[in-house]
Amino acid sequence: MSLVTIELFFGMLVFCAQVTWRKPWYLPLAAAAAFAYDWMYFPLIGTIDSGPVSALTITCKSLYYLGSFALMVVALRCCAYITWLEALVIAVAGYAVQHLSYNVFALMMNVLDVHHVSLHINSTVVHIALFALVCLAIYAVIGRRIAIDEHKIRARYGWVVACVAAMVLMVVFSMVFVQRKPMAVQTVGFLYDSLCMTLMLMLVLLASTNDQLRSDLIAMQQADRLKAQHYEMAKENIEQINIRCHDIRKLVGSLYADDGRMPTPEMIREVENNIRIYDSMFHTGNDSLDVLLTEKGLYCSRHGIAFTCMADGRSLDFMERSDLYSLFGNILDNALESAQQVEDTGKRVVNLSVQRDGGLLVIHEENYYAAEHAPIFKNGMPMTTKSDKANHGLGTRSIAWQTRKYHGELTMKATDGVFSLGIVIPIPA
User: Fold this and answer.
1) What is the pLDDT of residues 321-357, one digit of tens each?
2) Three-class SS state of 52
3) Where does 256-363 have alpha helices with state H?
4) Range 310-322 average pLDDT
5) Superfamily of domain covering 282-429
6) Minimum mean pLDDT among 57-61, 79-83, 251-255: which range?
7) pTM higher than 0.70
8) What 3-state DSSP class applies to 393?
9) What residues does each domain of the chain span?
10) How far apart are CA 80 and CA 8, in angstroms?
């Protein structure tokens, strides 16, 4: 029985260590679908393999492989929280694993025959054992610490397409020019095919994955940046509160002069303006969010930015504190930086809302931006306008990463001088 679809299924799992699955029982269902597909095509493939090579046999096998590939892409997309593009690349990598394991099996059987070693073994058992060893080896070396990333795929779209095309050519080359040749030619062909497929697989992974170690390094750099900003902001806020308290004490003392004159409206208004600093204190029901919003509110008060926020902090209880602080910290940092660049003081406004809508967490942020600093979008994400692109733009990428971590959807757009960000995240039951 042909096991291509089943092998493809397990080959894909090699690169799914960082994938989050929708339901535990979806995977066995996908495996059953792969087995049923192979079982349905078993009589046809057996007939094709036993006959001569022709255009009809090549077409039939190609359709079988294509159907197997399409079935696994759909199954992976339905079973995991990934995009279609990510599922497509994972399936391509899984097919490379399947093809490599077949080449290893064919090479081993050819070598045994060439040396006239007489072994009474079940070829199917050997094939399965070698496939398992190849999967374990690739998983141990690279599969366990990489994650397919749609943004990297789109950024290196040409490389990915070229590598996938080369892999397809390798499969066709093996099927048409190698498998029916004399044993010595087959051995050289399988070896060459394996080397080329390995190279193409490595290029595809380099072009479309995030290494976990690199992701951790970026996260550490982001955390260090936030800590530095937090320290500077906290120091400025303490200084501002001390100054305001001193001013309030003096103003209250001067409200009623020694000569008994009543306080003027201007004097009362000045006291109110100094007390207004305490309007920046937030009580949303989530302590971590309260601290962050209060810090940003004090910063806005000091820099002439109107900051309004309506937040249901209790709906954020499912998020880790570090993730919450990173997500909202980056959202507000980007918004405040943009608002400060607006010359019209009446448009230095940042609006944030966090609410629960049924089983969804809905986050929405809006702010004005200066025309000369209008964001430039690429693949739905604003690109940094700073010259040092390696160390900037991390905030936007972090927002996207945090959203995907909680299986949410992120949208950003800029229209008529207003930048808006929307995030929808399913709230765990």
Assistant:
1) 878 888 898 899 999 999 999 988 889 999 999 999 9
2) coil
3) 265-275, 287-303, 321-340
4) 89
5) Histidine kinase-like ATPase, C-terminal domain (3.30.565.10)
6) 251-255
7) no
8) coil
9) 4-211, 282-429
10) 16
